[in-house]
Amino acid sequence: MKRFATLALVVCFTAAPIFAEDQEGGGLQIWKWANFLVLAGGIGYLIGKKGGPFFAARSVKIRKDIVEAGEVRQAAETRAAEVERRLANLEAEIAALRAESGKEEEAETGRFGRHTAAEIAKTQAQAEQEIAAAGKAARMELKRYCAELAMGLAEEKIRARMTPETQDALVRGFVRDLK
Asked: What per-residue confidence (pLDDT) applies to 71?
C-alpha cells in the first residue's frame, strides 16, 4: 500500500507540469517546487533505503581495516624491536665470536706445536737409529777389513816362512794324524 501511494504521488507530480502549462505564471512555479520536492523525496528515500546498509557495511569495513592496520603496526613494531635487540647484541656476539676464534686459534697453534714436536722427536729417534745402524755396519765392515788384513798378513808370513822342507814336514804330520 505504501508503494502504491508513493507511485501515485510520483505520477501526479510528474503529470502536473503538463496540466500546469495551461495556467499562467504563478501555478507553474508551484509545480516546479512540487516536482523538486518529489525528486528530493525520491533521492532521500533511495539514500535512506540503500545508503544506510551501504554506509554501515563501509563503516564495518573501515573498522576492520583499522583493526588489521593496528595488528600489522604492532607486528612491525615487534619485528623492529627484535631487530634493534639483535643489533644491540650484535657487538656482544661479534666480541664472543672473536674470542672463540682466538681460543680456537690458540688451540690450533698448540696442536700444531705438539704435532711438530712429535714429528721432530720421531725424526730425531729415526736419525739416531740410522746413525747407530750405520755405526754398527761400519764397525762390522772395519772388523771384516781387519780380519782380511790379518789373514793377508798371516798368509804372507806363512808363505815367507814356508820352505819346501817345512812343507814336507807339515804334510807328513798331517798324514800321520790321519792314520
From this structure: 93
The C-alpha angle with vertex 136 and arms to 135 and 142, in degrees rounded to 5, equals: 85
The size of the chain, in residues, is 179
Query: Residue 21 in 3-state DSSP?
Result: coil
Q: Are the C-beta atoms of 34 and 16 separated by less than 8 Å?
A: yes
Q: Where are the domains of the chain?
A: 2-162
Angle at 30 between CA 25 and CA 35, to 5 degrees: 125
Cell triple for residue 136?
754398527
Grid look-up 554506509 returns 55
For 33-71, the pLDDT digits (tens) are 888 888 888 887 887 788 778 888 889 999 999 999 999
**Residue written as cell 509545480?**
31
Summarize the confidence of residues 117-131 as an average pLDDT: 90
pTM reported for the whole predicted model: 0.35
How far, in Å, are 56, 91, 93 from residue 80 at the CA level? 35, 18, 19
